[in-house]
Design a protein that fits this description.
Blueprint (H helix, E strand, L loop, with lengths): L2 H12 L3 H4 L6 H27 L3 H24 L15 H13 L3 H4 L3 E2 L4 E2 L2 E2 L3 E2 L7 H11 L7 H11 L25 H4 L1 H14 L5 H13 L5 H21 L1
Antiparallel strand pairs: 1-4, 2-3
Helix pairs in contact: 1-3, 3-4, 3-5, 4-5, 7-12, 8-10, 11-12
Length: 261
């Protein structure tokens, strides 16, 4: 059987992105081994979904969902170790997404009604001088148990000085914060100055410093802002605009809660 036919059979059966399975010149053995990896993890995911069908508590379903995410991470890691050249994959492969969505649907049934009320945000809205992003919810953007954590962070008082805040920011923010400006545009401002200028030679540091000060000026809990930095890093959204939008989303969700409880 040809490589192309094997690939076609796998994709037709499992409907996963081509780049999850394909790298330059895979052998039949590698392709079949990847299929076996998915079969093994699909069986484990099926067992978790069977537990979910019997589970009646929100916390129990959260644990099962966390287990599914761990299984998916293991599955992706094994697939990557099975090839010689690793392609750049955006978005990240989600080979167990159907199982994860199944348990998410069960979780949504145990989620309070007010949380299921959609928040609609458009990218032409400006809040705190930053444009937001389009968020049109058909189901909640963030899992309810994660939202409960964010709700606590939202209410935490700010106790850090500017120096303490900027130090923590510099310790936690990835290098991408040295490339993107506050609005999420890549390699602008200092990076576009003449090559012999002070600004160009120090563009990464200057960009990073501007972003840190912009985060400091946001009117939200510092604890929440730092959580948005972490979440943004995990989801390739590393700029002030995203952190601001996520904080505003939490604010609007809490307004829904206050209106409906």
């Amino acid at each position: 059987m040809s490589n192309n036919l094997i690939m076609s059979n796998i994709l037709n059966k499992y409907r996963y992105p081509l780049e999850f399975w394909f790298c330059k010149g895979p052998s039949n053995e590698v392709l079949l081994e990847n299929k076996n990896i998915l079969n093994d993890y699909s069986a484990l995911a099926t067992a978790e979904c069977t537990k979910a069908d019997l589970c009646k508590t929100f916390d129990g379903l959260v644990k099962i969902l966390d287990n599914l995410h761990k299984l998916e991470n293991e599955c992706v890691t094994k697939r990557l170790s099975n090839i010689l050249a690793i392609p750049v994959m955006h978005p990240r492969p989600q080979p167990l997404i159907e199982y994860i969505n199944y348990v998410n649907d069960l979780l949504n049934k145990l989620t309070p009604d007010w949380y299921m009320i959609s928040v609609e945000i458009t990218e032409d809205e400006q809040v705190n001088e930053y444009y937001l992003y389009d968020i049109k919810e058909t189901s909640p953007w963030l899992r309810y148990d994660y939202f409960l954590k964010l709700e606590k962070l939202f209410s935490e008082p700010n106790t850090m000085t500017r120096e303490e805040f900027l130090k923590k920011y510099d310790d936690n923010a990835s290098f991408e914060w040295s490339k993107f400006n506050e609005q999420g545009k890549y390699f602008v401002r200092f990076h576009n100055c003449s090559e012999d200028s002070y600004e160009y030679k120090n563009a990464y540091k200057l960009t990073r410093d501007v972003n840190g000060n912009a985060l400091w000026n946001l009117p939200y809990s510092h604890a929440l802002i730092f959580e948005t930095i972490k979440y943004g890093s995990d989801h390739l959204q590393e700029c002030v605009r995203f952190s601001n939008c996520m904080c505003e989303y939490i604010s609007r969700k809490l307004k829904n809660k206050n209106k409906n409880i």
